[in-house]
Amino acid sequence: MLGNLFLHSVTVALLCMPTISAAQEKVAQIAAPGAETQVELVLRSTTDIDVLQPIIEAFVAQNRRISVIYEQWGSNALFENSLAACAGDMSSADAVFSSGVHQMIDLVNRACASAYRSEQTTALPASRRWRDEVWGITKEPAVIIYNADLVPDAEAPKTRFALLDLMRRPNSIYNGKIATYDIEASGLGYLFAFMDSLEATTFGALLEGFSRINTVATCCSSEIIKRVSEGEYLIAYNVLGSYVDSTSADNIVVIHPEDYTLFLSRAYMIPKDGANKAEAALLLDFMLSTTGIRLLKERNLFYAETNDVSSLPQSAERGIAIEPTLLVAGDKHRREQFVNLWRSAFPQRQYAR
Prior knowledge:
Layout: E1 6-11, E2 26-30, E3 39-45, H1 49-62, E4 66-72, H2 75-86, E5 95-98, H3 101-109, H4 119-122, E6 129-130, E7 134-136, E8 140-147, H5 160-167, E9 178-181, H6 187-199, H7 203-212, E10 216-218, H8 221-230, E11 235-240, H9 241-245, E12 252-255, E13 261-264, E14 267-269, H10 277-288, H11 290-298, E15 317-319, H12 327-330, H13 332-345
Parallel strand pairs: 3-4, 3-5, 9-10, 9-11, 13-15
Antiparallel strand pairs: 1-2, 2-4, 5-14, 6-7, 7-14, 8-11, 8-12, 8-13
Helix pairs in contact: 5-7, 10-11
C-alpha cells in the first residue's frame, strides 16, 4: 500500500521565527518499497509533510528510480534559504514549493529559477504561472473558523462586517479570544493581510477592531486551529482552509467569508542551481496531472466547489494571481510601512510565541 512508502522521518525542531540559520522543521525521505534509488530529489516546502506525503508517495511509486528528500520549512525561513542558495552560499534544493507566493515571485524576479514548459504547465490559466518559471499548484481558501461549542451559530461572522460588529460589542466575550497570523513570523499571514489591505474597504476598521478586542497574532495554522478547538481562542481570522479541513476537530466550523474569500495557489519553482532539474520537472507535471489534482483534492489542497458547505458564490472568490504585481508586497519600504501599521493594532505584549 502507498501508506507503507514513508521510510524515514526525523523531527528536528518546530520553528516559527524566520532566521536564515534556522534548520528545517522536519525532514523525511520517501521512496518506493524495494526500489533502487538513482536520484535523490530535494524538495523544500512549507506544506506539512503529513499533508503532502500521499502525493509524494504516489509520485515515487510511478517513478521508482527517484526518492524524495522532503524538507519542511516555515515560509520566511525557506525564502531566506532560497536566496542564499541562489547566491551560491549554500546548497540548492531541486524544487521549492511555498505558500509565500509573493516570496516566490521575488525569487523568480532575482533570476533564481529555471524555465520549463510542458503540456501540463501551459494548460494552467495565466493567473497561475509566470515566465514559465513559477507555477500555482493548489487552490486553498483563507477562511474564518470558530468553536461551535462556545460560539452561538447566530453570532458566527459570515462576513468581515459581521466580525467587526462582534469586535465592537462592549464587554465582549471575544476580548482576547480572536486570533490571526503574526505577519512578521508568517509569510503566508503577511500575504493574506496585504491582499486584504488591497481588497477590503474594511481593512482599516479590522485593524482598529483587532486592537480594541486584544486580538492575538500568532504563528502557524496548526497551532491556531488547535487552540480554537480547545477553546483558548473562540474565532480565528484568515486561516488556511486546507489545514482546517485536514484536522479531526469536530467542534471547528469553517466560514468562507461571503463578502469575499481569498484563494491561494501554492507556488512551485525549479531553482537555477538544482542538481536534478529533470526530476523536479517530472514532479511538477505529476502534481498538475489528472492523478495529481485528484490527490490534491483528497488532501483538501484543491478547493472542490461541490463540497463547499458555505455555498460560496463564484463572484466572491478572489484568487491571488501569480504575477509581478506581488513584488509590491515584498518591496522593503512598502513592507516596513505595512508592518508598522500592523504593529499599531498588535502591541508586542499581545504576540503569542
